[in-house]
Amino acid sequence: MTAVDRLQHKAQEHRITIIDMIHKAGSGHSGGSLSCIEILTVLYEEFMTVDPSKPGWEERDRFVLSKGHAAPALYAILAGKGYFHPQELDTLRRTGSILQGHPCMFKLPGVEMSTGSLGMGISVGVGMALAAKLQNRSYRTFVLCGDGEMQEGQNWEAMMSIGKWQLDNLVLIIDRNHVQLDGTVEEVLPLGDLHAKLRAFGLHVISCDGHRTTAVAEALKQACDRKGPVAIVAETVKGKGISFMEGQSAWHGKPIGPDEYRQAMAELREAL
Q: For residue range 171-203, what is the model confidence (pLDDT) as tens digits?
């Protein structure tokens, strides 16, 4: 199996894990987790410098899941990296579980910031990147946002700060799946020319197919090599990999019933 095939295969395995844990929990956000799983797979397998045995290591790279509802995707990744035992995945959203509906930094190693209320991730990432600069540390900060989240003003204030401080140690990634909680982004609150807006705030923009691991890897390499602020716009599909979920806002957080679970798992396994 080639390195490319390995990453695509691993992302597909994570998809199966995501659907399995959400079905067992009876709740959770499937659509946005499935749209970003290649991004997270490539990021943690190829670019993030981390040590699961030392989650507080000062030189580790930081990752902020600004779209905190996609926690199942992050949990699948962290379990695969060895931050916690995979059996814990069966406890998603249960009382007392370390795997809450949105990631909690006080309960789960590997989570850098408790997220859930949208629009705050870039601001947190700015703080982490500035701290690295002030302390002369080499770690990078990666922030993953949803495109619906870009409707919130705090993000644009944070991006002004990125431009002001020329934070080339921060990589902003936007999961551009074009669908949010109750409709398409275009229907709810259009973003207009997102690339032009990002450039107007001083960020160099890199576009990629967010479901091709080679394209994601190339975009991340360009972002990490670049001197100056950068944003990656990854074109994705909400609910990617499951025919009845793809592009449907209903699957932002809809419970997965028994028949839907069987069909979803059959489709995902067939694609392995």
A: 999 999 999 999 999 999 999 999 999 999 999
Instruction: Decide: 93 and 101 in contact? Cβ < 8 Å.
Output: yes
- CA 197 vs. chain centroid, Å, equals 21
Between helix 213-225 and helix 3-25 the angle, nearest 10°, is 100
Q: Confirm whether pTM is higher than 0.70.
A: yes
Task: Give the residue among 184, 198, 18 at the shortest CA–CA distance from 90.
Answer: 18
Angle between helices 258-270 and 3-25 (to 10 degrees): 170
27-68 pLDDT, tens per residue? 999 999 999 999 999 999 999 999 999 999 999 999 999 999
